[in-house]
Design a protein that fits this description.
about 55% helix, about 325 residues, 6-stranded parallel sheet, 2 domains, 13 helices, 2-enoyl-CoA Hydratase, Chain A, domain 1
Length: about 325
């Protein structure tokens, strides 16, 4: 009976959380606004999800322009490719702005910047050094290294050719890890121009015509006076982004294995097993081994399993609590 009450309380908390989320996400935005997004840190599955959500929101609300302000040392190739593909498929023009002063668009950031309809850099910024490396920073060697390098070269050359940028420099950035300052990048036709802030960008591109998609031209008008909408990461996305760290992922998976070992050697303890399963799932998310959506489904499945076990296994609410955590993480 106590287990049933615990499960009911868990579901009640979930319903309250969902209700709050819906209430907080109901703000209306007038069409024609400029949507501002920000990448500050490594490129990973959560960044990919955030950019996809931000572009979807801009499209749904009839935005005039999307500006992604970016400062990144690089990140996962798989996440970078998804972001590039999303920018290229966008129905709203996208500006990638490497900022603030002192920022960089290194490695994966180079691909993302060059994929934008308009690529801009702030003073004292850099772009390049896009050679592929292992997650631990070591070089990729042998046939595998050549395959990955050649694949990356083909991808970045395709991006450069699509946007009319310098494909030869882009290839050098991958093969030789070359980099450029903002001034060099403009001279080399890697980016379009240098700007001190978003206001200057909007003034510079006002009235210009860009190719949104092959054969589809769009003229940018009414930018300086347009409403601006900040699309920030949610609290949950920020939390998951902090968790999505390769070093932390290794620790989480190791702790998860230890937890499962303790549970298997001491049946009925419950907590180490529950914590271990959650730690392993989050660890795989952090490593980028599985897509965010797949991990979400796995976590929801784990939650349902924990709730079911709570009905039959005396755990003092530990299984229900673990299920609640898994369900919330999986749902977001």
């Amino acid at each position: 009976m106590r287990s049933l009450k615990t499960v009911r309380r868990a579901f009640l908390l979930i319903l309250i959380a969902v209700g709050i989320g819906v209430a907080c996400g109901s703000d209306d935005v007038e069409p024609g606004a400029i949507h501002l997004l920000e990448i500050d840190g490594g490129i990973g599955p959560i960044t990919e999800r955030y950019i996809d959500r931000g572009i979807n929101k801009a499209e749904d609300e009839g935005a005039r322009l999307i500006v992604i302000q970016m400062d990144t040392p690089g990140g996962f190739s798989s996440s970078m490719r998804e972001i590039v593909q999303r920018i290229e498929a966008s129905n709203v023009p996208v500006v990638v702005y490497v900022s603030p002063y002192g920022a960089r668009a290194a490695s994966a950031g180079t691909f993302i910047t060059m994929s934008a309809h308009v690529a801009v850099m702030a003073p004292n910024t850099s772009i390049g050094a896009a050679a592929a490396i292992n997650a631990d920073g070591s070089d990729l060697e042998g046939t595998l290294g050549k395959k990955i390098e050649n694949d990356a070269v083909a991808f970045i050359r395709g991006i450069a050719e699509l946007r009319g940028r310098n494909a030869d420099w882009a290839e050098e950035a991958v093969r030789e890890a070359v980099a450029a300052t903002q001034t060099e990048a403009v001279e080399l036709n890697v980016v379009d121009f240098v700007a001190s802030d978003v206001d200057e960008i909007l003034e510079r591109i006002e009235g210009t015509t860009i190719e949104l998609k092959p054969g589809l031209l769009v003229t940018l008008n009414g930018l300086p006076e347009a409403e601006r909408v900040n699309t920030s990461m949610t609290v949950w996305e920020r939390m998951l982004e902090h968790l999505a760290n390769p070093t932390l992922a290794t620790i989480l998976i190791s702790l998860g294995m230890i937890g499962l070992f303790i549970e298997l050697t001491n049946p009925g303890v419950v907590f180490p097993g529950v914590a271990g399963v959650l730690a392993i799932a989050i660890g795989f998310l952090a490593l980028g081994v599985l897509p965010v959506d797949t991990i979400g489904l796995v976590l929801i499945g784990i939650a349902l399993l924990f709730f079911a076990l709570e009905l039959f296994v005396p755990s003092g609410g530990i299984l229900a609590g673990g299920g609640l955590v898994a369900l919330v993480l999986g749902a977001i």
